[in-house]
């Protein structure tokens, strides 16, 4: 909010009744400028279009994020279940953000995963 107020102050200090004319341009600028803290544009964060830099390569071993579900009948809470499973070997890179994994013994295909799901 400080950035928006600062931009309005710069643009509208002499013609304060026209602040509404500048809002759409200020909104566009704010949403399409890379911000220092996350290193991303807000539109990238909201749309999930940002691809983080990673050092994953074929033949690396990784863990895969598990999406656990609680089971009240069996007294299982997802908070206490492991967050990752593995280890699996990266057999090849499908795209910059997608890796194909196989089991440690190279005999079974595990799946294709986004790098955000790998550790």
Supply database-style keywords:
119 residues, alpha+beta, 2 domains, 4-stranded antiparallel beta sheet, 4 strands
Plain-language structure description:
A four-stranded antiparallel β-sheet has the order 1-2-3-4, with no helix packed on it. It is elongated, with a radius of gyration of 23 Å. The model has no long low-confidence stretch (mean pLDDT 78). By secondary structure, it is α+β, with helices and mostly antiparallel strands. Helix 1 (2-12) crosses helix 2. It is built from three helices and four strands, in the order H-H-H-E-E-E-E. It has two domains: 2-47, no CATH class; 61-117, no CATH class.
How are the elements arranged and paired?
Elements: H1 2-12, H2 19-31, H3 42-47, E1 61-65, E2 84-95, E3 98-102, E4 109-114
Antiparallel strand pairs: 1-2, 2-3, 3-4
Helix pairs in contact: 1-2
Number of strands: 4
Q: Could you report the average pLDDT, rounded to the nearest whole number?
A: 78
The level of helicity is: 25-40%
What is the count of distinct domains? 2
In DSSP terms, counting alpha (H) and pi (I) runs of 4 or more, how many helices?
A: 3
Radius of gyration: 23 Å
- Through-space gap between termini: 34 Å
The helix/strand series, from N terminus to C terminus, equals HHHEEEE
Biggest sheet strand order reads 1-2-3-4
- Main beta sheet, described? 4 strands, antiparallel
Unreliable stretches (pLDDT < 50, length at least 5) are none
Structural class of the helices, strands and pairings? alpha+beta
The proportion of residues in beta strands is: 15-25%
In one word, what is the shape? elongated
């Amino acid at each position: 909010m400080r950035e928006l107020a600062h931009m309005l102050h710069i643009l509208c200090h002499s013609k304060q009744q026209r602040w509404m004319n500048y809002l759409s341009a200020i909104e566009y600028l704010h949403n399409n400028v890379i911000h220092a803290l996350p290193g991303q544009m807000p539109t990238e964060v909201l749309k999930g279009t940002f691809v983080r830099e990673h050092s994953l390569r074929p033949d690396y071993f990784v863990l895969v994020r598990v999406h656990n579900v609680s089971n009240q009948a069996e007294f299982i809470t997802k908070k206490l279940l492991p967050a990752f499973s593995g280890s699996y070997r990266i057999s090849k890179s499908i795209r910059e953000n997608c890796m194909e994994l196989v089991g440690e013994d190279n005999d079974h295909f595990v799946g294709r995963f986004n790098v955000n799901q790998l550790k």
